[in-house]
Amino acid sequence: MKKYAISPAEIRLREGETVRFEVFTEDVQHGFDVPALGIREPVNPGKPAVFTYTATRKGRFQVDCGILCGPRHDDMKAVLIVE
Does the N-terminal peptide bond of residue 4 adopt cis geometry, omega within 30 degrees of 0? Predict the structure, then answer.
């Protein structure tokens, strides 16, 4: 994550798969949020957010920056796709 982008913009998982996320930022604090899946992780500079997630249902889920990070904060979008 960085001002004002989430990369990759598309994350693909298989239903039933458990993945370990390591989310980094080098500029300011961000939040890796997937509201529909109950994921809400703060991401701080110099310390990655590390968490696991098991994909329990198929669908397309919006990923947002959950911490206000500047004037283009609302541009920080990605999608998590569970197939």
Answer: yes
Q: Do 71 and 52 touch, CB atoms closer than 8 A?
A: no
Q: Could you give the domains of the chain?
A: 10-82 (2.60.40.420)
Could you give the 3-state DSSP secondary structure of residue 37?
A: helix
**% of the chain exceeding 90 in pLDDT:** 88
| Burial of 7 (C-beta count, 10 Å sphere; 0-12/13-18/19+) | exposed
Peptide bond between residue 8 and the one before it cis (omega within 30 degrees of 0)? yes
CA distance 33 to 47: 17
Q: Is the pTM of this model over 0.85?
A: yes
